[in-house]
Amino acid sequence: MFPIVLLGMMWPIGAFAQSNGYYLSGGISSVLVGDSEIEGSGVKTRAGYNPGFSGSMAAGLAFGDSWRTDVELAYRSVGIDEISGATTSSGEASGASLVLNGYRDFPTDSDWTPYIGAGIGVMRLDVEDASPIGGSRINDDDWSIAAQGIIGTGYRINDQVGLYTDYRFLATTDPDLTTAAGTEVEGDYSEHRVMIGLRWSFGGGTPPSKQEATTVWANAAASTAAPAPVQTPEPRISPLVGTRTAQTPNPTKAAKTEQSFILFFEWDHSNLSEDAHAIIRNAAEARAQAPDASIEVTGHADRSGSDHYNMELSRLRAESVKVELTRLRVPEDKIHVQWKGEGQPDEPTDDGVRESRNRRVEIILK
């Protein structure tokens, strides 16, 4: 079948939008199409095509556990470079495709997210003035089944916008075409596309301000409460020995001072920001002033993903904090790590809603 150039314009409205899951995407791509074998009654030739470009748009649905799907509408047009056995050749092929794609994202501890995907759909191929084909020319079109494989990576700009680039291989079943002389022919079609695009998403909670993200929250009541004064009773006569002794009760221990530190994470990330590193340093320095103190680290997630996925994400966040505390010379046996998933939100939300204040790790110095 005739190769087509796909300039893929993907513009996601919600691969990041966990509140409703919907997204749009758009991009452009260059296309290299394989040679097409054209065969029919008394016709056997080969057509080669020039590289081309195409554009596409897609709308889809993202799931919190790194799955997403979209419907992609694309248009392409390529020129015929040569037809075997002919000294001169002409014509072009254009087409529109509608493909349902499925993707699996692989989140990393960075703004880069690799992914793979596959799709199936239909494509309408329109061939204009392709000649010479069996002593005639082709002006015809046909619908075919199309399938494609995808591999690429995305880069997060912010919670709403991301860039991506990927490679896509698309092939179709052989389209049936008819020459101007009435000869029925069919040809094979496949293409290689390298795409760059923009993904746009909506929804999610309001991120904390810079001041909130770097604030250390301390337990004011515990840290400011002065220990009760220890009263020593007046000396009294001991009936056993007849001498004066002073009895001093065991002093009550001063209430332990608990300090709390909190740091936030970007959506679907467990890597530490510069602000998070600063807060962890504060916690480590505070612990250095109390060598016998222990540290409790608790990871949390918002409700934008599945329960299982969020539990694992909160674990990764807590573990990343523990690694940094250990690097700052806090004894590992003094660090107690736990994770709660989405079960203990700081800001209650409906299921599926992103809320930045819930994407956190709490550090308590005891």
Number of strands: 19
Overall shape: it is rod-shaped
Largest sheet: 8 strands, antiparallel, barrel
The end-to-end distance, rounded to whole angstroms, is: 71 Å
CATH architecture label name of the largest domain: Beta Barrel
Number of distinct helices: 4
Beta-strand proportion: over 45%
Low-pLDDT windows of residues = 1-20, 204-255
Secondary-structure element sequence? EEEEEEEEEEEEEHHEEEHEHEE
Helix proportion of residues, in percent? Answer: 10-25%
Question: Which key phrases capture this entry?
Answer:
mainly beta; 60s Ribosomal Protein L30, Chain: A; 2 domains; disordered N terminus
Write a brief caption for the model.
With 366 residues, the chain is mainly beta. The chain contains 4 helices and 19 strands.
Tell me what you see in this structure.
The chain has 4 helices and 19 strands. Helix content is 13%, strand content 46%. The protein folds into 2 domains: 191 residues, Porin; 123 residues, 60s Ribosomal Protein L30, Chain: A (2-Layer Sandwich), CATH 3.30.1330.
